[in-house]
Write a structure and sequence with these properties.
By secondary structure, the protein is mostly beta strands. The chain has two domains: 89 residues, RimM (Elongation Factor Tu (Ef-tu), domain 3); 56 residues, Roll (SH3 type barrels), CATH 2.30.30. It has a six-stranded antiparallel beta barrel with strand order 1-2-5-4-3-6. The chain has a six-stranded mixed sheet with strand order 10-9-8-7-12-11, with no helix packed on it. The termini are far apart.
Length: 170
């Protein structure tokens, strides 16, 4: 991708179905921080395409619609459907929320004891699923679960449902 290698990028989400004839595309953010950020960015990087200036961003009901310089027609916009969207980290606004991509590599604690780290995040509709790598194996935990507490220094798990994580299995 053009210029991408020189910038530290964070995934914001992906592009969805086209919107109207002016080349608009639905934008599906990874989380709340990513949804808010898209409104303040002058450009983004699109998987397989590179840098694209943002012409406009609009809310249409519950959807976010992006209008990009790389998609001035409906035909061009259709070629961008399902592509991942990235932004330079230095352009991202400060937020009370967290950017989901920033969670990768974060330490995970169970009842105060470090058990591993977040390996990846899987989008699963209304829930984001964290893949946690431990010495005993890989486990999946829903980010929005009541037993998950996110802090600046790590992800804390407590009062887990029986069988969710088994640290005794090798």
């Amino acid at each position: 991708m053009t210029d991408q290698n020189s910038e530290n990028l964070l995934q914001l989400g992906k592009l969805g179905k086209t919107f109207q004839l002016a080349g608009g595309l639905r934008f599906y953010p990874l989380g709340q921080a990513e949804a808010e950020a898209i409104f303040s960015l002058p450009y983004i990087y699109i998987e397989g395409l590179g840098k694209s200036e943002i012409r406009d961003v609009k809310e249409q009901g519950s959807d976010i619609i992006l209008f990009l310089t790389s998609a001035l027609s409906i035909e061009k916009a259709k070629t961008l459907v399902n592509r991942l969207v990235y932004a330079p980290t230095e352009l991202l606004p400060e937020t009370e929320a967290f950017y989901l991509d920033d969670l990768i590599g974060l330490d995970v604690y169970l009842e105060g004891k470090k058990i591993g780290e977040i390996e990846s995040i899987v989008e699963a509709g209304m829930q984001d699923i964290l893949t946690i790598e431990t010495p005993s194996g890989t486990f999946m935990v829903p980010l929005q679960a009541p037993y998950v507490d996110l802090a600046e220094d790590g992800l804390y798990l407590s009062d887990l449902p029986d069988g969710l994580i088994d640290l005794n299995n090798s």
